[in-house]
Write a structure and sequence with these properties.
The complex is a heterodimer of chains A (728) and B (235).
Chain A lengths: L4 E7 L3 H11 L6 E7 L2 H10 L4 E5 L1 E2 L2 E2 L1 H11 L4 E5 L4 H10 L3 E4 L5 H34 L3 E6 L1 H12 L5 H7 L3 H7 L2 E5 L1 H6 L5 H6 L10 H12 L4 E9 L5 E12 L5 E9 L7 H19 L6 H17 L1 E10 L6 E9 L13 E3 L6 H8 L4 E4 L5 H6 L7 E9 L2 E10 L8 H81 L5 H30 L7 E3 L1 H14 L6 E5 L5 E3 L1 H18 L6 E9 L3 E8 L9 H4 L18 H11 L4 E5 L5 E8 L17
Parallel strand pairs in A: 1-2, 1-3, 3-6, 6-7, 20-22
Antiparallel strand pairs in A: 4-5, 8-9, 8-12, 10-11, 11-12, 13-14, 13-18, 14-15, 16-17, 17-18, 19-21, 22-23, 23-25, 24-25
Chain B lengths: L17 H30 L6 H32 L5 E4 H11 L1 H6 L3 E4 L4 E4 L1 H17 L8 E9 L2 E8 L6 H4 L19 H11 L3 E7 L3 E9 L1
Parallel strand pairs in B: 2-4
Antiparallel strand pairs in B: 1-3, 4-5, 5-7, 6-7
Helix pairs in contact in B: 1-2, 2-7, 3-5, 5-7
Classes of the chains: A alpha+beta (728), B alpha+beta (235).
């Protein structure tokens, strides 16, 4: 690897951090380093698209991008360059997350030296290369896998392989005789296989919509006739063969039985994973039973059409009755019953919900089971069968004495029951009796019944979901109310918390500022130019922190002060504020225009703070304009007046409008416009305490519009309670 | 009718809490200047050592000490905010063994204050392990730090069964808390007559943990005689 010259991009908006970083990079002697510097996301994206970097160091908090987003936004542009995240101590967790997302490394600011940095650079470049190569070959395979018309699936046989290895260790020599002796082992083995990935052709073949659905229903595809195939396949694994092919039968999710030709290739790997690549070709003859398929489709449509109208509680019985009728008619049944099951501790119990009788049959009463215990009837086995998702045939001979007394078979010799599931739980069954038993139930009829039962299950699931949704909506209003009052108290808590925090932080800060000031005053003369500049940076850091903590205290005091409502000549107040503030920027050329604003009510000194913050904000963000234009006007609403402050400054991206009023949120480079970002949070808090609200509109480079409302003179307002003296 | 299958009660994802954002931004915005100060103090030491008098070096050391202190305060702020964000599963915890584990970490402090510790019968409780450990750690540390020179420290941890909840008590015979401080002890960074290393965050964090577990916390104290910290946890 040739590391003679390395091009580095450092994306860092904090100039001091950048200087330190550069300083340390300069100490690396093993290769020549060329550094480029970007201070914002947009700048960084432009640079990585126009030139090639060997490595990118990325600060996560940029003026135009925050946190994880910073990485995900730049990642598509960096191509093969590795990204190393620069993090502070508090965002280390985010940095770790980002490494999981694909960053090569992270470095904690202020906690590294040249050696560490050099290591990180070399490792990151190497690792990224290796990853890219791996990804390329993987991608090639994936795209073939996805696009090929043949059904191909990748399955994880690792657990099964382990299971077989354990069997061998236990001394099992002959796989076949082991299977024959232990009937349970095949289903158990089946459950050890999981899907890694299947391609669209496979999903379609099995009647699924997505990989997830396929995966979820894997066990449903297996029927009894699948087992011989599965046995052969496992035997091949047992014997250590590297491939296998043979015929298999499955049932698709839609209930269609298919015959397939399976070709399996075994793929072991050095990490101990044992995967199997299986291609499946459908060899079912589709011609047979076309008519029956069409009939089934018709029945299904009937049910789902009516299920679509399932909007109210009342319509459910109607729909179920209709479903039973459709089943009865299509299967030439004499009676169709819908039972539900509950699971008390004493064992499962059944309950008759709906019944449909063929009109040609007399309506007898009192003969049939309406509710009771499954066990008492001696139908445990049948119940288990239902739980497995299969149809159960209840023969007259299966019933015990009590069962025969309770269950009325209407002269028939058997009942076929099909299970109904709701989210995987057996909640009921549809039981069908036929009068004409000269012909046995065909497989198709059984399958149809199963499908219909499944449809009823999903109808119920949907119904329950709708009911839950309805309830949720009902509760929503109450919840919003509760949340509003919770939020109010949360803000109060936050204020008192920030009060104690800022108070606590002041003590050490005073010491830092004090000592650095003394150093600068008394020893500034005696140290070198370089030392002086370091000292300046230290002072700057201290004053930044002081500003921050003062603002924090301001913020925390907002809720503590009692509001005094007065009639406010807000126009006069605006003019006064403008006079005061523009005196502080004598070299600026600013056009102020204050329209007729009328009068409103509010706490004079607090509202003045609002005006100061808004006007100062506008002055600050128009500093790049040759002639700044700041306009104040108002518009009457029902019981409020909305004031607007419009400027022609740098504006902001509406995508971040939510961040504007948060504490310490900043949308612009700190170097360009100073301030801690608490100003608008304070404004929002004050206006909120006046029952008004604040909003903003803007566009990058096209100015910003800020709006706030205050109550009219005759509006009665509910004054938010003062925060009590007890904390948190 | 029994066809309904119970569904989980609807959870509405609330917005990220204002508090979290506050702690996050405060810590982030303070750490930047702090890091800057430490780095430039270091550079001053390395590059300008010849120009600096002893007094200068002393001042630089003060600055470093205080930046370190601020850093620690910020860590404890982050710790405080983590209490609410902790998503650990509740587990059954044997408090006696939790306490013994903590004590083994403080063996040095224990011998310095000739500490005698008495652990009563403590029940098993259900809680988030990291938080419960942190709670007991803070309380025990507070007790150790209340040690008065010349008076062997006694710490007693006990529990009372109050029907629907357990009431725990950590009692010491240390310096106690003066009346004027009593009302502020649960505030973050409350400075009471404590050693310099103590940031005054322990009780704030402890109370937050207890509250998160559905309990309450209160303190009784007599200056110069000792302190009793009670916390109640639901059964």
């Amino acid at each position: 690897m040739d590391y003679l010259k390395i091009n580095i991009l450092v994306v860092e908006d904090n100039l001091q951090d950048y200087i330190i970083f550069k300083e340390i990079l300069g100490q690396i002697r093993d290769f020549f380093i060329h550094i480029d510097h970007a201070q914002s996301m947009s700048e960084a994206i432009e640079m990585v698209t126009t030139s090639q970097f060997d490595i990118v160091f990325l600060d996560l908090f940029l003026p135009d991008s925050f946190g994880q987003e910073t990485f995900t936004r730049i990642e598509p542009f960096v191509g093969s360059s590795p990204v190393v995240v620069l993090s502070g101590l508090s965002d280390k967790n985010i940095a770790l997350e980002i490494v999981k997302l694909g960053a090569q490394d992270y470095i904690v600011k202020g906690d590294f030296d040249a050696t560490l940095l050099e290591k990180s650079i070399v490792y990151s470049i190497e690792r990224k290369k290796y990853q890219d190569r791996l990804q390329q070959s993987e991608q090639k395979y994936r795209s073939t896998f996805q696009s090929v018309g043949v059904a191909i699936g990748e399955y994880d046989y690792t657990k099964l392989k382990k299971y077989l290895d354990e069997l061998k260790q236990q001394g099992v020599k002959d796989f076949r005789s082991h299977i024959n002796l232990s009937l349970q082992s095949l289903p158990e083995m089946r459950s050890l296989v999981s899907v890694t990935n299947v391609n669209p052709a496979t999903i379609k073949l099995y009647g699924c919509e997505s990989v997830e659905e396929f995966e979820k229903n894997l066990s449903r595809f297996y029927i009894e006739e699948t087992l011989p195939h599965f046995e052969n396949l496992i035997e091949a694994v047992w014997e250590g063969a590297d491939q296998y092919e043979g015929e298999a039968r499955f049932v698709t999710l839609k209930g269609r039985r298919i015959t397939t030709w399976e070709q399996a290739k075994f793929l072991g790997d050095e990490l101990g994973y044992y995967r199997m690549l299986i291609s499946t070709s459908d060899v079912t003859k589709l011609s047979e039973k076309e008519d029956e398929v069409r009939l089934q489709a018709k029945i299904l449509r009937g049910i789902s059409d009516s299920a679509g109208e399932l909007l109210s509680e009342e319509s459910l019985p109607v729909i179920l009755a209709k479903a039973l009728e459709i089943i009865g008619a299509s299967l030439a049944a004499v009676r169709v019953s819908l039972y539900t099951y509950t699971y008390p501790e004493s064992g499962p119990e059944y309950n008759l919900e709906y019944r449909w009788n063929d009109s040609s049959m007399p309506d007898e009463e009192g003969l049939s089971a309406e509710a009771g215990s499954i066990k008492e009837l001696g139908l445990d086995k049948h119940f288990d069968q239902l739980k497995e998702g299969e149809c159960a045939e209840i023969m007259i001979s299966d019933l015990n004495h009590k069962g025969r007394d309770t269950i009325d078979l209407l002269g028939a010799s058997m009942v076929v029951a099909a299970p109904i599931f709701d989210q995987g739980v057996l909640i009921g069954s549809i039981n069908v009796k036929k009068t004409d038993e000269s012909e046995p139930w065909s497989k198709f009829q059984v399958e149809s019944l199963l499908t219909l039962a499944r449809n009823i299950g999903s109808t119920l699931t949907r119904h329950n979901a709708q009911k839950a949704l309805f309830k949720m909506n009902e509760n929503l209003e109450q919840m919003v109310k509760n949340r509003t009052s919770k939020m109010r108290s949360a803000i109060k808590e936050l204020e008192s918390f920030s009060y104690s925090v800022s108070h606590g932080l002041r003590a050490p800060l005073r010491a830092i500022s004090g000592f650095s000031q003394v150093l600068a005053d008394e020893y500034g003369e005696s140290i070198s130019e370089e030392g002086k500049s370091y000292l300046e940076h230290i002072l700057k850091g201290a004053s930044e922190m002081s500003q921050l903590i003062d603002d924090l205290l301001d913020f925390s005091r907002m809720g503590r002060r009692k509001l005094e409502f007065n009639v406010l000549d807000i126009e006069g107040m605006f003019n006064e504020v403008i006079r005061e503030l523009s005196a502080q920027v004598p070299d600026r050329n600013i056009n102020f225009m204050v329209h007729n604003l009328g009068k409103c009510q509010g706490d004079r000194s607090m509202i003045k703070q609002v005006l100061v913050n808004f006007i100062w904000n506008a002055i600050k963000y128009t500093s790049k304009e040759e002639t700044a234009q700041i306009t104040v006007s108002c518009e009457e609403q029902d019981s409020f007046i909305e004031y607007s402050i419009i400027d022609n400054g740098v504006g902001f991206d509406m995508a971040y409008v939510d961040k504007l009023f948060g504490v310490f949120q900043r949308l612009h480079l700190e170097e360009e416009f100073d301030g801690t970002g608490v100003g608008l949070a304070i404004v929002q808090r004050i206006v909120g305490r006046h029952s008004g609200n604040v909003r903003a509109e803007g566009k990058v480079d096209e100015g910003a519009k800020f709006y706030f409302t205050l109550p009219k003179l005759d509006t009665e307002i509910e004054i938010e309670e003062e925060v009590s003296s007890s904390q948190m | 009718m029994s066809l309904t299958v119970s569904s989980d009660k609807p959870k509405l994802a609330g917005p990220e809490s204002e508090f979290d954002r506050f702690v996050y931004t405060v810590s982030h915005d303070l750490q930047e200047p702090l890091r800057m100060i430490s780095s430039f103090v270091r550079l001053l030491n390395v590059k300008c050592d010849d120009d600096l008098s002893d007094e200068c070096n002393q001042y630089l050391e003060y600055i470093t000490e205080n930046t370190d202190r601020m850093k620690k305060m910020i860590y404890s702020l982050v710790d405080y905010s983590r209490v609410d964000r902790n998503r650990e599963e509740f587990q059954e915890l044997d408090l006696t063994s939790v306490i013994n584990d903590i004590l083994s970490m403080y063996s040095q402090e224990l011998s310095v204050c000739e500490c005698h510790i008495e652990i009563g019968d403590l029940p098993k409780i259900s809680g988030q392990p990291t938080l419960i450990i942190s709670l007991l750690k803070h309380l025990l540390r507070n007790s150790f730090e209340s040690f008065v020179e010349g008076r062997p420290l006694m710490v007693k941890i006990s529990c009372e069964d109050k029907n629907d909840h357990w009431q725990f008590c950590v009692e010491d015979n240390g310096c106690g808390i003066s009346l004027e401080h009593r009302e502020h002890i649960f505030e973050m960074f409350c400075k009471i007559n404590r050693p310099e290393e103590n940031l005054g965050a322990g009780l704030a964090i402890s109370r937050s943990i207890v509250r998160k577990h559905g309990g309450k916390m209160f303190v009784e104290s007599t200056p110069d005689l000792g302190t009793l910290v009670y916390f109640a946890l639901p059964k």
